[in-house]
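Record 1 of the preview.
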Amino acid sequence: MTQITQITPIIQITPIIQITPITQITPITQITPTKNNKTTMTTTVIIIIIVVIAVWYFVSTQRDLVSKDELCKNAMSQISVQLNSRWDAILALAKMAAQYSQHESETIIKAVEARRVNNVTTPQQVEAQQGEISSLWSRLMAVAESYPDLKAADLFKDAMGGVKQYEENVRMARQIYNDTATKMNRTVRQWPSSIVAGLLHFDVKDYLKIDDDKKSQYPNLDEAFAKK
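->
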């Protein structure tokens, strides 16, 4: 009886790679706001608010100044229109007077053409034009007094009525201008709007002033009508 040889295993398989656990990720440290950070943020917010308010005030004041400046210009333009109407009335009366006193009439017409300013833009020009109108009006009334038929003419009476209305319109326009200039000057001179006005080169407006001496130089149309 033969003995069977026992075969033993030749190669023993051993594990090649050993998997180790992954390193555990630790949470990121949370940054907490400090007292200095809070102060800086508050200061920044306050600065932004101040800048926004300053810009808003600058823009609103600029718009207000422009609006009042335009109102002053419009009031001055109305005065110019009424002065031109008075010049036209004097010119029409002078042409009517030519039928009675040609030399004096032609002299007045030439004076109107030489002294008339069609577009006044300053109070100084208004006062100068007012004086010229008063001077020529006095000369025209002197001619009318010398010729009763001229004063009695219907066209002359109508022209006189128009001149009286123009004079009243000028007075109203002057008052409107002075009221508007007062509001403008108040904004230009008061603080802090004066800062914006200075930066944008808005100046104080001159007033139209009428003292007793100047009033006495104006034509008294009521008296002229009473003598008709």
